[in-house]
Structures are given as C-alpha cells and as structure tokens.
# Entry
Amino acid sequence: MEFLDWLEDNFPRDFYDEAIAQRALRHLRNPEKWDLFSEDYVLQRTSEGRWYECLVYEILLELSLRTDTVRSVVRKGADAPGPHIRPHPGQNGFYYSEKGNLTVRGNGQTIAEMDLFFVDHHGNLGFFEVITSAMGLKEFHDEICYKKRLLGSMLGQETVPFVLVSSADVSGYSSIQQIISEPDNLVLITNPVEEIRDLIYEGSIRKRPTKSDPHPKFLDLARIGSGDAFDYRAVHDRNRERVVRAMLSSGDDGMEAVSSVINPLSKKIMLGTLDEAGVEAMLHDRAVRIKDAVFGADDVNREFPRVVIAFDIPAYTPVIYLKVRGKEEYLKIVQAHSGDLVFQSTRTPARSMAGFYEWLNEEKPMVTAEVAESYASLFLDMN
# Structure
C-alpha cells in the first residue's frame, strides 16, 4: 500500500525533535506529566507509554503534511472535541473516551480501542498501535486481527491498513512475525523511549501548553461511518441463539459445533439466566470459591438471586455472574488454572463499566437445566 510504503521510508526511527516531543505533553493531564518523573517505576512507565503514544500522534500529524498518501488523521487527546458522551446500551460505532482515546462501542460497551486512526488516499480507515515494551504480546496478533475484522465489517472495507510503532525491539516475537508476514501491515521500531524521553525535562511540564492551530488534515471521529449498519446487540443475540442450538444438538462435536456458528465480532456471549435446577445442573459436584467461603449449588441458589452464564471469545473461557442481593453489584466468577471456579472481581454501574453493567443487568433469557449441563460439560470440564 502506498501510504505504508511511504511511511516505512519516512517515519523517524532516530527521533530527536524537541519541539514535537514537547508538543506531545499537551495531551497529558497534569498528574500524568508529573508521573513522568516519578520515583514510582510503575507510574513512570505508565505515563511514559501514554506520552510516547501522543508523540507518535504528533509525528503522524507532521508527516501527513508531506504526503498525499494520507488524506486525514483523526483527532485524539487534547484535540478531541467535547463533550464526552457517556456509554449506555444501544450505542454502536465510534466514540471518544474521557481522555480523548479512540474507541469502538458495541451496545454501549467499549469493544475495541485504537491508539491512532488515519484515512489513506483510497479512503480506507487504518489504525496504529503504539507500545513501549514486549508485555502482553502473546495475544497481540489475535487482537489486531479482531480490530481489522471489526473495522472492515463496520465500514465495508476489504482492506484495513495497520501500523505498529514500538520503542522496544519486538520484531523477534512470534505474534509480531505473524503481523509482519501479513499484507497491509507495517511494523516500525524506534529508539528506546528512555532515550527519546531525554527531550523533555521537569521544566517542560511547568510551561502552559499552547493550543495548536487547526490542522488541515484533522478529522473528527464522529464523521467516520455510522453505527446504524453495525448492531452489536443483534450480532450477539444471533450468536446466542445459534450457540444454544449447537449446545443442545452438538453430540460428539462439542466445542467445534459451538465455534463453527459464531460470528467473531462478538467478544462475549451471554447465554442467559439459570433457575435453581440450572444452577444445580451446572454445579453438580462443583463449588464456587468466593474469597474464604465455598458455595455449593444450594448455597448459590440461597445467597444469590440471579446467576448469569457466559463465555468469552476467542478463548472460549467460561464466565459466571452472581447478582449480590440488595446491591447493584455482580460477582464475576472465572475458572482458575486448577479448574476451580473462583471470584475474580465485581461489576458495578461505575462509570468505566456503566454500559456493560446495564446490559448484564437486563432481563436475560432463562436457560434450561439441559443447557446448563451442556455448558458445564463444554466449558467447565474442557477448560
């Protein structure tokens, strides 16, 4: 692709432009700026990663003025227009996060987040991911494939260009090798972020950031496509119906029968709510460990007024949600490596989980004991 070829030749790996490095600071909130010089290593690295991402954005804005192969760059960070739209069920499409990050929402949930968006001269939307370490690369290839499939489906694009920019040399990792070997992808390795960060200093963050002039290639996220043609809830509900039918008629095919009917745009399938017989069928000879307490089927039926079963895609790992009596709270139960069902975390209407919580808390189809037994056999035993 022309833009990716041009970018490979022109993106600066040895980066020493202090003006652009300083300009990237304007996207960070004050605490994030000070964390760049924190003695707490975790805080420093987190803020460093955010700054490096914004630096790549500023470099892309600068480079876009030198080529006709990129038509526009989507605003982000401090350039994102307000106000922030809070998530709620029914939202589908592109939305800014509170920090001005670029996200895709499905039924009010964030189902994907991209670091940068651009539109090439063919009119295709492409995206960047920006990293500063090799952490979390095991599933990275699958994550990029999902985002490409998602954007292609939403926008009707056959081609979705992708660029990875990393300040760590990750080129030898298998997931990165897979990305390099596939078409319409580009991997760029720059100087280590620790070296580039020498371009800023504590005095930098005391300066009042100047508001940038409107960029001639700016594009607002709201102008990309439309959520009308992308109904994430409808995709999920069709998946659920197919999965339930497959679970009841799979015979010896098991998980293959389930996976063969799933539209991979779904990231989680909510199978439904169990009645008391369903809980007993699922937890036959099993227990749920919540902190120091162990709950059998009778205990779960007595203590929790609602039990919702689900599984995550593409890992096909089981997830069980237990509604806490008298509270706006669900306990998320997952399967440990030992095979035990254990408490992992809570789900509440807090701002970051509001869309998902509302969807989880809606009335769900009642799942029969037969489906619950099949769920246990397929997901709990196999995992």
Remarks:
- The CA atoms of residues 186 and 227 lie 28 Å apart.
- The chain has two domains: 2-229, 232-381.
